[in-house]
Amino acid sequence: MDIMGPAQGSYGLKAKGEKAVDGKGNEVVLFQPAKDFESTMDKVFTVLEDIVKKVNGAKIEHNKFSISVHFRCVQEEDWANLAEEVQVAMQFFPSLCLTQGRKVLEVRPAIAWDKGKALEYLLNALGLEGRADVFPVYIGDDRTDEDAFKVLNKQRHGLGILVSTAVKETNAQSSLRDPSEVLEFLQRLVSWQQAQASSD
């Protein structure tokens, strides 16, 4: 929900979007489909922060357009109470939705936006959509990444890679076990690209 990239782009590509200046004074392009929710997210963060403070091991993270309540370090017998208090608080914010991930509760604006739509936006904004010389690769480890995998499947062009040690149902075409395998894959991809460039 918070996409930022360099205004100049790379390889002569210039992204389309709202121009701004980042913290270092560089001109950037922003795309924030949930921009109108910024003050609401600040309010709900304050409310949830008070709840989280009372639960030993719970942590809260403000990600500008989403809020994560982590309960990985919370005693198992306290999980239900924490979730219930968060759900009660969320009733006062009907424009937001609450979802649960792996030992995390996530609060997001209730808008039609997901990682698949973000991928489509990036390909379009960079002028890369439908180009035969561009092969999108999307790597993800969460169920929210499934929307991006579906986009690549629908386009029949690109590669979705799930990162997981467990065998699970996915829309990704391939899988890697952990971040070290992701690093190795990316290094091999760069080496292959460099070899292709030097042979041309």
From TrEMBL:
Keywords: Hydrolase. This is Trehalose 6-phosphate phosphatase. Pfam families: Trehalose_PPase (PF02358). Gene3D superfamilies: HAD superfamily/HAD-like, Trehalose-6-phosphate phosphatase related protein, domain 2. InterPro entries: HAD-like_sf, HAD_sf, OTSB-like, Trehalose_PPase. It catalyses: alpha,alpha-trehalose 6-phosphate + H2O = alpha,alpha-trehalose + phosphate. Pathway: Glycan biosynthesis; trehalose biosynthesis. One of its GO terms (molecular function) is trehalose-phosphatase activity. Its EC number is 3.1.3.12.
